[in-house]
Amino acid sequence: MKDISSVESLTIPEGVTVAIKSRIVTVEGPRGKLVKNVGHVQMDIQLVSGLDDGLGLDVVAVVV
Questions:
Q1: Taking the model in full, what pTM does it have?
Q2: What domains, with CATH codes, occur in the chain?
Q3: Separation between Cα atoms, residue 61 and residue 4, nearest integer Å
């Protein structure tokens, strides 16, 4: 059986806040608030700081 791994990095724009807790992602910005539960998807989400652009978001998904 093959495992497929995918990594994607996203830059968070200025004025937008992202909070992640127990695979519930909350994004707040000038256009409003979005709450998404991604508990059904096997992936790892991490906020990354110290990038040249400011804050970033790393998403690692593994499909078995």
A1: 0.71
A2: 4-63 (3.90.930.12)
A3: 8
**What is the 8-class DSSP label of residue 12?**
P
CA 3 from centre of chain: 21
Burial 8-21 (b: 16+ CB within 10 A, else e): eeeebeeeeebeee
Which residues lie below 8 Å from residue 41, measured CB to CB, with a gap of 6+? 23, 61
Six-digit token pair at 52?
Answer: 């040249």
Task: Report the Cα 39 to chain-centroid distance in Å.
Answer: 12
pLDDT digits (tens, 9 = 90+) for 14-24: 898 888 888 89
Using CA atoms, how far apart are residues 43 and 64, in angstroms rounded to an integer? Answer: 11
